[in-house]
Amino acid sequence: MLSSIRPLVNTTPGKAYGVLTRGLHHQFGGAAATKQLFSTSSGRHKDNAGVLLQDKDNGFGFARSNPRPPKPRSKGVTEIRGPYYSVMGKRYLADVLETMGTHVDGLKFAGGSFSLFEEKPLRELIELAHSYDVYVSTGGWAEHLLTHPDVESVFDKYLRKCKDLGFDVIEISSGFLSIPADDWLRMIDKVHSYGLKAKPELGIQFGAGGDTAAGELEAIGTSDPGKLVNMGKKFLDAGVERLMIESEGITENVKSWRTDVVSKIMKELPPERVMFEAAEPKVYNWYIREFGVDVNVFVDHSQIVQLSCLRHGIWGMADTFGKVVSYRPSS
Question: A Pfam family this protein belongs to (predicted)?
Answer without folding.
Answer: ComA
